[in-house]
Write a structure and sequence with these properties.
single chain, 289 residues, mainly alpha, 14 helices, 77% helix, 0% strand, globular, EamA domain-containing protein, membrane
Length: 289
């Protein structure tokens, strides 16, 4: 069972790693790409789930949990995109990927769950790898402004989503979870786009193709796989493994947007993956997920 969950998580991360590459193409604004990513995925999965009798909600508390998950996920994407627009993709990505720390802290403080030592060691290694990956000079040049705050906030939203989705998924199947939570995300992002005065149409054919890929691959397929893994793995571990998307996104950027990989990114990527690997080496008696 765990092998299937780990494979699903790995494949899901590969799928979401395409998203930053698509955003970097600048075919649409960041907020619009976030909205259509959710809207397209929801338009596919919600009718299939509804007419296939897959939506099963036992009480209003489950619906509230789904709404919270949807708003948290949408808030993470919206805040992350606004952070990029007001600073840089590197700073926003670095700050958002502090989410494993927030997952560990929130788990310990509010959920009374003590993350394993391997998690904290892996987190330290992975974050050191992140600093190497983006460059120490980038970290030293961080601007402690509104965009910095948004980057931190994005990581907190991401952490909360991982924790709340883990709890919510224990009460229902993945299809029910995704179809309803994404519907809430879509409505929330639609309202955000209205507030920011975004235009919903008038894009090029290439832009629409990009939006379709984002909705089907980066959202629907990716989060079906990641949600399947989240239901079966510790939230702390999932949050840390998700850091590997930075490495995969860089590799995909080489292929699709002709970016170059420098030595520090190779070293940083190895350190990040080594930190993640640490969390999977435990005594056999501690392996219960």
């Amino acid at each position: 069972m765990m092998n299937k969950a780990r494979i699903a998580l790995f494949l899901g991360i590969l799928c979401i790693s395409i998203f930053p590459v698509m955003v970097r193409m600048n075919l649409t604004s960041g907020l619009i790409s976030a909205f259509y990513r959710m809207a397209i995925a929801t338009a596919i999965v919600l009718p299939v789930a509804f007419f296939g009798g897959k939506i099963k909600i036992k009480d209003k508390r489950e619906l509230v949990g789904l709404m919270i998950c949807g708003i948290l996920f949408a808030s993470d994407i919206a805040v992350w995109n606004v952070s990029i627009q007001n600073s840089s993709a590197t700073q926003a990505t670095l700050l958002t990927n502090l989410s494993p720390i927030w997952v560990g802290v929130i788990s310990l403080a509010l959920l009374k769950f003590r993350p394993k030592t391997s998690f904290w060691l892996g987190t330290i290694f992975a974050l050191v790898g992140m600093v190497i990956f983006v460059g120490a000079e980038t970290v030293l040049r961080l601007n402690f402004d509104f965009a910095f705050f948004l980057g931190i906030l994005s990581g907190i939203f991401y952490a909360l989503y991982i924790l709340v989705s883990k709890s919510t998924l224990q009460k229902m199947d993945v299809i029910t979870f995704l179809s309803i939570s994404m519907a809430f995300s879509t409505v929330f992002l639609f309202l955000i786009c209205l507030v920011f005065g975004e235009k919903f149409f008038g894009f090029t054919q290439k832009a629409w193709v990009s939006l379709l890929i984002q909705g089907i691959v980066c959202q629907l397929i990716a989060w079906l796989l990641i949600s399947y893994a989240t239901k079966r793995m510790r939230a702390t571990r999932v949050s840390l493994v998700l850091l590997s998307q930075v490495v995969f996104a860089a590799l995909l950027a080489v292929v699709f947007v002709d970016e170059k990989i420098v030595a520090r990114q190779i070293i940083g990527g190895i350190v990040i993956l080594s930190g993640i690997a640490m969390t999977f080496y435990e005594k056999r008696r501690e392996v219960a997920e």
